[in-house]
Specification:
Number of helices: 4
Radius of gyration: 17 Å
Shape: globular
Number of strands: 7
Mean pLDDT: 79
Structural class: alpha+beta
Low-confidence stretches: 1-20
Order of helices and strands: HEHHEHEEEEE
Number of domains: 1
Strand content: 35-45%
Length: 176
Amino acid sequence: MRSRLLVAVIFICSATVWAADKIVPPDVKLGLWEITETHNMSGMSMTIPPEALARMTPEQRAKMEEQMKGTMGGGQKPKIRQYCVTKEKLEKDSVFGDEREQCTRTILESSPTMTEVKLQCKANEMTSDGTFKFEALSKENVKGMMRMVMTGRGQNMKMDMDFVAKYLSPVCGDVK
């Protein structure tokens, strides 16, 4: 049951739906960016139920355990990844994720230098409420945060994510 809760949380946190309102694309350079993220989740057990582990391949199990170890509790190492920013991604609001019917958003503020969005989702017996803030400090530097509270199946969980991003190159290479 806890593994289903974790999957639902990951799904909810990575997706939002777009209403008729439009986010103003940030005024940043197109190309390759490096994103450094820190995550902290609290309020949920970090153990995977034995029956869920038994159904996983060794690769799935290792990946799930690594994700849980890197996301829950305090003091995690920052995660560093690269991302290719394109005009199409900015125009589609894809910085916030794919369209999902189970989520709504309310744009609190949107300009070329800052966007703040309130997110509300309901899926798989889970509800979540939170805020995402994205600030373009310059055309080459961005910072942001997400604060979410998820409730469902008798559990409450809080997820905080902070990130900084820096522009690397106009060429993305193999990075999507």
